[in-house]
Amino acid sequence: MNVLVIGANGQIGKHLVEQLAQEGKHQVTAMIRKPEQADALKELGAQVVMGDLEGTVDEIAEAMKDQNAIVFTAGSGGSTGPDKTLLIDLDGAVKTMEAAEKQGISRYILVSAYGADQRSKWPEEIKPYYVAKHFADRALFASDLNYTIIRPGGLKNEPGTGRVAVGTDLKPGSIAREDVARVIAASLQEEKTYRMAFDLIAGDHAVSDALGKL
């Protein structure tokens, strides 16, 4: 498959690009907004294409040409305000869904957030972020795309273990970003994840075993 990673310059995105390139099963392309990000991602094994989530659907669709699967792991980041969160994490995500449909690309993986489906779990201090994730998830549910929505718990930068827990109502927990990337990569062609949304935290099961039990 030709896999386009949106948010490839982010922490999960870089892990994913590197893992997909090392596996060698898929051709990975990184969508970037700044030309200066290109060299580092090429060194990880990706092709690069320019694209801006604040651009038009047609412009984003053009960046998706010749792709078979889309991974959205972009985010506005913790240093921006609610306005940018709305533009990137919600509208940017929805525009990529519309662009994928426009290009006839059906496989779409969205990295959401633990508890995004349950308003009672939204932390007050970052509620706009959860609002964005919640409604991006809902837009994907309503689409015709063959989606997978991954809702990781608290994200850590420590090395991954390759052992995870997945489910639809897990207790709160955390997970290494490296392991989130492993789950994305394994989900691409795992039919048990098709048209599924699930929580993800560190656990006791190998990634393939955990996903196979969904």
UniProtKB/TrEMBL annotation:
Q: Start and end of every NAD(P)-binding domain?
A: 7-190
Which SUPFAM superfamilies does this entry report, sorted A to Z?
NAD(P)-binding Rossmann-fold domains
Q: What is this protein called?
A: NAD(P)H-binding
Q: Tell me what organism the protein belongs to.
A: Paenibacillus polysaccharolyticus
